[in-house]
Amino acid sequence: MKLLSRRLLVSGALVLAGSTTIAQQPDKKILHAFNLNQVQLAPGSRLYEMTVKNVDYLLSLDGDRMLYSYRDFAGLDTKGAKGYGGWEWSGGTLRGEFAGHYLSACCRMYNQLKNTDAAKAARFLDKINYLVNGLAECQAAISAKKGADYPGHPGYLNAQSASQFDRLENLQSADVPFYIIHKILMGLLDAYNITGNKQALKVAEGEADYFSWRLNRVDQITLETMLNTRRYTGQYQGYFMEFGGMHDVLLELYSVTRKPAHLQLANKFSRKWFNEMLAGNEDNLGRNAEHSNSEVPCVVGMAHAYEITGDSMYKTGALNFLTWMEEGHEFSTGSISGKSAYPEPLDYGGELFNYPKNINYQVNSSPGHEHHNNGESCCSHNLNKLSEYAFTWTGDARWAGAYEKRFVNAVMAQQNPDDGMFIYNLDLKQGAKKEFGTPDNTFWCCYGSGVEAYAGLAEGAYFNDGKNGLWINRLLAGTLNWKQKGVQVTQSTVFPDNGYAKITFTTVQPTALQLHILIPGWAGKNASIKLNGTEQPIAKAPGSFAILNRSFKTGDVVEVNFPFSLATAPMPDAPQYVTVTYGPHVLVNTAAARSTFSGTEQALLQSLQPTGNPCEFTAVMGGKTAVFKPINRIKNEGYNGYTLISTPRPAQLTDVVTIGDSLSLAAHNLLAMYMGKGQFNGKSWIDAGVNGWLGFTVKVDPAKEMFLQCRYWGSDAALKDAVRLFDIEVYNANTGKYTAIATQYLEKQNPDNWYDVLYPIPVKLTRGQQQVQVRFVSKGFYGKPGVTGGLYDVVQVQHY
């Protein structure tokens, strides 16, 4: 075996020659997570109780009902079982997906319990083995089918016909067939890797061999079209098919088997355009209207590919993507996904990317287009997988903090504390409400990722460097057993109800350790770390690791205290909406939708009064008392994810283009193609007709983050033969090209009212510049040409 040369690495997609495989790479991680069976959650703690609810649910599910659709399609006896409902309905196109999630969740619980609760671990192992055996029987029966139901080659395993892949390969509507295959493969590989079930590996290899046969018949152009998740590609929606983490799971299979065919298959799902976009640090996710939970698993695959191939392009791309998320796409909770910038049918409101920092439309949309969802839970779980990759590569506290923020506010908010059921979307819109599923008739994708995540709630808490370094990234009630060192670390804490933890050491013998404790960014300057009662004179900067070097012995106690404090932060593109936080918590208010606090951010903070419940406050909004509480404590009540205030922080104007003033237009170098102008409701307007554009030169502050504000008439809508759809672009002096900062669609966004929109301008476009060129460019949609505007009254350039 030999390491592939750079000549064989084509834009991030590995091209294999003959039987060539990849030599085992040196470990790319500088830090390693502890196995979950080394961390025991403290009985009675909140995470323990969440886990118990999940365990009870997993054990309540019936293997024969889970296998019903598989056996029914395979022509086998369904053993008198009745299939589950929801997405698992026997007539549905997503049936079969949950079985893979379920296998993975059961494997994770088995791994955690085998050293502490043998009886319950045995129950999980029985469920794993029964399901794997049932799937193996189905695979054999499907391979023996005759006629139209024969999938064409042995090895196919699914709960439905392979005809959906025929449609996919003909670029016809086919739902998400590879998404389902990914879940099946991942469950089987977890069964092999965690429990040693060799039958599971054999079934997984058979499935992979089938799809190797299948995809080797597909020409490259068709394959690239199948996997092109850019929903807007110019005029028409591109062909779209969510294919989950196929790249990632097939790389995992390759890492087990080391068979070149498995690597070749994996890399069919590694897309040249996507890899280049990420590695080149060009965030076009919003302009392409990409599907959030299609792309995050693909980036997890890139992270995995870096560790297998050693190609730093994958690492660069993955870290760039995480940076884009943190700096431009994440909501206050660390979650992502919502409404795109485009009209229906391309946009279906809830699961797509928008432009960086265009948060308001993603979360709240507009008064004329309400009631969509945002914050798909699967995205949060997958982003935390990616954050863990980044942390183990770099040791950077930034990624540890991102993980904690998302864990506390998105992951812990997903489960119903009464019955253990899960939500799909963690909405942050005005008038949001958690919509929990049911035990037998839901089985959304977020149910699957939920049962997996809640089978590993201790993840992300402890890491080591393989030597004497120990990292504590999260306050976690329970015990770490570092067997290799003969060290036990027990945390007593009620986090996240407060930021105090007592950390007690038990050692076989005095042991030299370098202890790293995450000081969260929210902890401020008053973080405290005591050793055996004495405050330690070590650096404790927020957003860093405090380091304590010493020989630890039994009875040593480290006490940490991170005081919680209230804070606010404005939504970047709508400062009238603010996030209220208390320590690690995002506080949402339970007032009626669009209730407004009368005053500024500072006045809001001063008005918040504690209720006596942990991390809970009240304030008067709209003349009524509203409760502010952690989003992870919301259950059945309605809430507003962001708080609306009457007096947002004031803008500082840098420049104003007055639409009705010819001198102002001339001073700003107005250029246009197919421009129209006029008066309406006492305000001047200009627009650009079919395939036209408008442009200005405006002043900016090179040291500030700048915003462009435009005014529209909220009743403007599509014309008979054109859509009101246009890009807003800023000239990039470094590249000599225009960069789109937003796409605006006008279709009765705020009927009978003026409609102001604030567009963040990326700092890289204004840094070092005294002025920039801005233009508004019409773009077509679904066979109709686009028009720009109208733009009314003034165009403002400002900062805060």
TrEMBL record:
SUPFAM superfamilies reported in the protein's UniProt record: Six-hairpin glycosidases
Stretch forming the signal peptide: 1-23
InterPro entries from the UniProt entry: 6-hairpin_glycosidase_sf, Beta-AFase-like_GH127_cat, Beta-AFase-like_GH127_middle
Domain Non-reducing end beta-L-arabinofuranosidase-like GH127 middle intervals: 470-563
TM helices/strands, residue ranges: none
Pfam hit, one: Beta-AFase-like_GH127_cat
Official protein name in the record: Glycosyl hydrolase
Organism: Deminuibacter soli
